[in-house]
Amino acid sequence: MAGATAFTIRAARPEEYPAVAALTDRAFAAGPYGHLPVSAERRALVNAVAERAADGAVLVAVEYEPDADPAGDSGRLLGTVSLVRADSAQARLATGDEAELRLLGVAPEARGRGIGEALALAAQEEALTWGAPAVVLDTGTLNRTSQRLYERLGYERFTSAGAVQVPETDAAASEDRIDHVDYRLPLRDRDDLVIRLVRDDEIEAVGALSLRAYDYAYDLTDGYRASIVDVAPRAREHQVWVAADRATGELLGSVATPRRGSTISPLAQPGELDFRLLAVDPPARGRGIGEALTRLAIELARLRGLDRVVMNSGEQMTGAHRLYGRLGFSRLSEREHDIVEGDRRIRLYAFTIDVPHAIRSIAA
User: Fold this and answer.
1) Beta strands 57-63 and 8-11: pairing type?
2) Which of 49, 114, 269, 279 could form a disulfide with 17 if both were Cys (CB 3.0 to 4.6 A apart)?
3) Which residues are 335's β-sheet partners?
4) Residue 166 pLDDT
5) Which residues, other chains included, contact 154 with Cβ-Cβ below 8 Å and sequence gap of 6+?
6) In terms of domains, do 141 and 25 share one?
7) CA angle 196, 159, 177 (to 5 degrees)
8) Are residues 171 and 69 located together in one domain of the fold?
9) To the nearest whole number, what is the mean pLDDT of the chain?
């Protein structure tokens, strides 16, 4: 993450797993339940970092020295959060395809820097990559700092089927018998659509879908056609998303975005997210697929703390231009330029939209 925060969020590395467990212990020991004895169940949960990483994701906030190489330097761990699936042994509340946020902790000396919020937002992005319909979590009733954080991020209280009410007194409380508040954050605004990262066995289908989408409306150069169908390298380096029909699983559209901390084209500048190759299969047009995928890009930028979304679009792609206009994008004329392919000169328009930093909203 750029700017005054001066920390990066990434997946925990296997060699860091013992340090992640130790950091979690320190974070919770400094909280409102730190005086309680730690149960064997809780100890096993905290130490099962490898299992959480295998079943879901373990993220860490890391601070690097100014001249450090993040690829080779593990940095200093400031905070951590885990995201697990409903069928994981680590899950407590999640059902179906929901994702569950667990063990969000910040080192006591690093509090007040927005690390907890950044980790929660990064976990939300991870849940989006799974296509999860919601993120659920619980926190102790005395942990009002966490409650304020989650409610600020749009989580809503709910009563889970397994909720146990225990009087919150020192006599009754222990680490495994704490009265909890349960929260849920919906991630889908449509019941008919699932948006998630592409799977390995879908790479070829996404290339074919994208080529159908662009061939349907545009006169493509050979070079651009080759770029469209070359999905595998794009999925390895960046993020390739698909929109799928929830009932049938049929792929309806796709878009490519950069991974956290990078860009996908020369257009983007610091503080901006760019996206490429927004495509809707011609039979699926009119269902709002392109709009849903564009709103996803805006949401990713918000979750990453970025200020703007930008993209290039060929001058002939008037249908896409109308979509961007409806969503509030404006032309970024100073970054427009021509490209030459063979004997053709093509004007690349540029569009931009400011990213709202209020409560999450993929929908308008």
Assistant:
1) antiparallel
2) 49
3) none
4) 41
5) 185, 359, 360
6) yes
7) 105
8) yes
9) 90
* Tens digit of each residue's pLDDT (9 = 90 or more) over 161-192: 544 444 444 434 444 567 899 999 999 999 99
Any domain includes 360: no
Q: Which positions ≥6 away from 108 have C-beta within 8 Å? A: 26, 27, 30
What distance in Å separates the CA atoms of residue 108 and residue 198, rounded to the nearest whole number?
38
Q: How far apart are CA 132 and CA 255, in angstroms?
A: 18
Q: What is the DSSP track for 266-278?
A: TT--TTEEE-EEE
- Token pair in block for residue 257: 């975005």
Residue type, 198: V
Place of tokens 């089927």: 161
Confidence tier at 357 by pLDDT (50, 70, 90): low
Of 123, 156, 186, the last residue of a domain is 186
pLDDT of residue 177: 64
Cβ(265)–Cβ(276) under 8 Å?
yes
What is the SS3 string spanning 136-159? EEEEECCCHHHHHHHHHCCCEEEC
Identify the H or E element spanning 123: helix 115-130
What are the tens digits of pLDDT across the range 282-322?
A: 999 999 999 999 999 999 999 999 999 999 998 888 889 99
Q: Which two tokens stand for residue 20?
A: 């992640």
Q: What is the pLDDT of residues 206-243, one digit of tens each?
A: 999 999 999 987 788 888 899 999 999 999 999 999 99
Mention every residue, 6+ apart, whose C-beta is less than 8 A from residue 243.
Answer: 193, 194, 195, 251, 252, 253, 254, 289, 292, 293
Can you tell me whether residue 302 is helix, strand or coil? helix
Tell me how far apart the alpha carbons of residues 78 and 206 are, in angstroms, rounded to a whole number.
38
Q: Is residue 173 located within the same domain as residue 35?
A: yes
Please indicate whether residue 179 or residue 346 has the higher confidence score (pLDDT): 179
Q: Which domain holds residue 46?
A: 3-186
* CB of 214 closer than 8 Å to CB of 229: no
Spell out the residues 6+ positions from residue 85 whose beta carbon is closer than 8 angstroms to its own: 55, 56, 91, 94, 97, 99, 100, 130
